[in-house]
Automatic annotation (TrEMBL):
SMART domains recorded: HTH_XRE (SM00530)
Entry protein name: Helix-turn-helix transcriptional regulator
SUPFAM superfamilies in the cross-refs: lambda repressor-like DNA-binding domains
Domain HTH cro/C1-type: 16-70
Pfam families per the UniProt record, alphabetical: DUF5753 (PF19054), HTH_31 (PF13560)
Organism this protein belongs to: Nocardiopsis lambiniae
Source organism, top-level taxon: Bacteria
Cited InterPro entries: Cro/C1-type_HTH (IPR001387), DUF5753 (IPR043917), Lambda_DNA-bd_dom_sf (IPR010982)
Length: 270
């Protein structure tokens, strides 16, 4: 029987293997040191099996990860309990070669700073504890770095001008967020465009969405709503929203002008 990869444990497995190899240890030598079988550790690294905490304690002591491995383990444990729709979105995101984002309400999650994300989660999840909010902030703000480490997809984000000019949190929070956008827009694999406030009525008024394209599969669209999001694979729905995104791209300011508008909004913050 063919073993299946457990998506929640892929990042943990990669980190475990990286740390082992960085210290010049083979599977057999780590197995001897921890008391766990080499085949078992191999399954942990390939995300075919989820390790228990006792193994983590042994591995941390030997590999000396300063808590890095523990954090990956805790992230994986949390992800295991994520709703099915979220796991599907994350898996699709990790397979995408191109991600196109339309965001008419807030800065897209992949592009958020910690301070901005913290404000969004605190207001949007009023019953969560501070600890739960902080975990969500960490997961969200590390997501772009993780994607870039894994396969570095090309990203094109179109953001409505009111989102750029809206005040989320204190002035320092918004200032940091706009500076972050300016830094990201200078990246070779990312484009951030602003849709001006005076653009005519367009299909994007129906709400935020993302078009995810991979080399292996047909494009999918993630449509966001108040309780999460859903993936659309229906050809007509995908084609329609791709056309909407194309119209948005036509109306959006070009990269240089978008950069200038973000800089202008940054300069107006007081």
């Amino acid at each position: 029987m063919t073993e299946k990869i457990m998506p929640a444990w892929v990042n943990f497995g990669r980190e475990l293997r990286r740390m082992r190899e960085q210290r010049g240890l083979t599977l057999d030598s780590l197995a001897t040191a921890t008391g766990y079988g080499a085949s078992t550790i191999s399954k942990y690294e390939r995300a075919y099996r989820a390790p228990k905490r006792p193994f983590l304690v042994e591995a941390e002591g030997i590999l000396g990860g300063n808590g890095d491995l523990l954090r990956r383990w805790e992230d994986a444990k949390k992800t295991e309990s994520d709703p099915d729709w979220h796991r599907k979105v994350v898996k699709t995101e990790e397979q995408a070669s191109d991600i196109k984002i339309w965001s008419p309400l807030i800065i897209p999650g992949l592009l958020q700073t910690e301070g901005y994300a913290r404000c969004i989660f605190r207001d949007g999840r009023p019953h969560d504890t501070d600890e739960e909010v902080e975990k969500l902030v960490e997961l969200r703000t590390r997501r772009l770095e993780m994607l870039r480490t894994m396969h570095n997809p090309r990203l094109l984000a179109i953001i409505a001008e009111p989102v750029i000019r809206a005040r989320v949190g204190a002035v320092d929070v918004m200032r940091e967020q706009l500076r972050h956008l300016l830094e990201l827009s200078a990246s070779r694999d990312m484009r951030i465009l602003v849709l001006p406030a005076d653009a005519p009525y367009h299909g994007g008024h129906s709400g935020p969405f993302r078009v995810l394209t991979s080399l292996q599969n047909t494009p999918l669209v993630e449509v966001e709503h108040a309780s999460g999001s859903e993936l659309l694979s229906d050809d007509r729905a995908v084609t329609r929203l791709q056309a909407v995104f194309g119209d948005l791209q036509i109306w959006a300011l070009p990269p240089a002008a978008s950069h200038a508008l973000i800089s202008e909004a940054l300069g107006e913050l007081r």
